[in-house]
From TrEMBL:
<dbReference type="GO" id="GO:0019239">
    <property type="term" value="F:deaminase activity"/>
</dbReference>
<dbReference type="Pfam" id="PF01042">
    <property type="entry name" value="Ribonuc_L-PSP"/>
</dbReference>
<dbReference type="InterPro" id="IPR035959">
    <property type="entry name" value="RutC-like_sf"/>
</dbReference>
<dbReference type="GO" id="GO:0005829">
    <property type="term" value="C:cytosol"/>
</dbReference>
<dbReference type="InterPro" id="IPR006056">
    <property type="entry name" value="RidA"/>
</dbReference>
<dbReference type="InterPro" id="IPR006175">
    <property type="entry name" value="YjgF/YER057c/UK114"/>
</dbReference>
<protein>
    <submittedName>
        <fullName>RidA family protein</fullName>
    </submittedName>
</protein>
<comment type="similarity">
    <text>Belongs to the RutC family.</text>
</comment>
């Protein structure tokens, strides 16, 4: 059985998908790009601010599902320029305890939705 998770505190999907799906005790969160859910506008121009917005969106979805970043077991980060990895990593690290941080991969890609610079998805377990 799956339960659809959606919140107004994260951007509405821009395609035929949901913000997250809860299956059993596992939450699969769709990739979040730096869209401010209040304005619907992209946060642009500074990779740290863009990453921060992605993480805020992910936090809102986790909260809606009754979870926190401590429940995250796997993250996937997609970036358009690997030269921005250190700045992205600095923001990302603020949300996790280094000793219990999730597994993760970071991949440089040619393009992302709306041509953003960063997209992050997560899997969390209650």
């Amino acid at each position: 059985m799956k339960k659809i998770i959606n919140t107004e505190n994260a951007p509405a999907p821009i395609g035929p998908y949901n913000q997250a799906v809860l299956s059993g005790n596992t939450l699969y969160i769709s990739g979040q790009i730096p869209i401010d859910p209040k304005t619907g506008e992209l946060v642009e121009g500074d990779i740290a601010k863009e990453t921060e917005q992605c993480m805020k969106n992910l936090k809102a979805i986790l909260t809606e599902a009754g979870m926190t970043f401590e429940h995250v077991v796997k993250s996937s980060i997609f970036i358009s320029d690997m030269n921005q990895f250190a700045e992205i990593n600095t923001v990302y690290a603020k949300y996790f305890n280094a000793e219990t941080a999730p597994a993760r991969e970071t991949v440089e890609v040619a393009n992302l939705p709306k041509f953003v610079n960063v997209e992050i998805s997560m899997i969390a377990v209650a």
